[in-house]
Design brief:
CATH topology of the largest domain: Umud Fragment, subunit A
Order of helices and strands: HEEEEEEEEEHEE
CATH superfamily of the largest domain: Umud Fragment, subunit A
Structural class: alpha+beta
Number of strands: 11
Largest sheet: 7 strands, antiparallel
Strand content: 25-35%
Shape: elongated
Helix content: 10-25%
Strand order of the largest sheet: 1-2-11-3-4-9-10
Number of domains: 2
Radius of gyration: 22 Å
Length: 185
């Protein structure tokens, strides 16, 4: 008679463990879908700030409360963007917010008529016009102007135009690999 209660206790213990394991998996999935994700940097468009194969964490919450601002490094979903196949997400720096007027003139970037001080760029970096349609424009209510830090090679808003807000995935929170570069980019 004692074997039956022990089998029942073992079954309850197994079910209890399964409940905890499934809860952890569910919480993990919810975090990845709605809060944070890992991205790998592909290409040289963010050099010298980020390098190819750097691993970064992207938080997805700030975009919901209009937390994306000037200078933030963001990931962008490429699906439906011109000149991008349905490939990996891209990582760029926010230069203009909805309502801003961005002008590219004589190798410089102007936002709302003022020259941008881009301290994150190497000295003497020139920002060339790629598409005359985007050399001077005013952003719509849900549009952002983004550029890579490596202006010579970056495929960004200078070529593809403003990025709709629904293509923004989130803000790069930190670089976690390689270990020697751990921290905020």
């Amino acid at each position: 008679m004692q074997t039956r209660p022990r089998q029942h206790d073992v079954l309850l213990e197994i079910l209890d463990w399964l409940r905890y394991i499934l809860s952890a998996i569910l919480i993990g999935l919810l975090l990845v879908v709605f809060v944070i994700q890992r991205n790998a940097v592909i290409g040289d468009s963010m050099d010298p700030t980020l390098h190819p194969n750097d691993q970064v964490l992207v938080e997805k919450v700030s975009k919901l409360w209009h937390g994306i601002t000037y200078g933030d490094i963001v990931t962008i979903r490429t699906r439906d963007l011109p000149q991008h196949e349905d490939g990996p997400n891209i990582i760029k720096r926010v230069i203009g917010l909805p309502g801003d007027t961005i002008e590219l003139l004589d190798g410089e970037v102007y936002r709302n008529g003022e020259l941008l001080e881009e301290t994150y760029l190497p000295d003497n970096t020139l920002t060339e016009v790629r598409n005359p349609d985007y050399a001077k424009l005013t952003l719509g209510p849900d549009e952002y102007f983004v550029m890579g830090d490596n202006r010579a090679v970056s495929l960004d808003s200078r070529s593809i135009g403003p990025i709709p807000s629904d293509h923004m995935i989130g803000e790069v929170l930190l670089r976690f690999y390689p270990w020697q570069d751990f921290g905020q980019p």
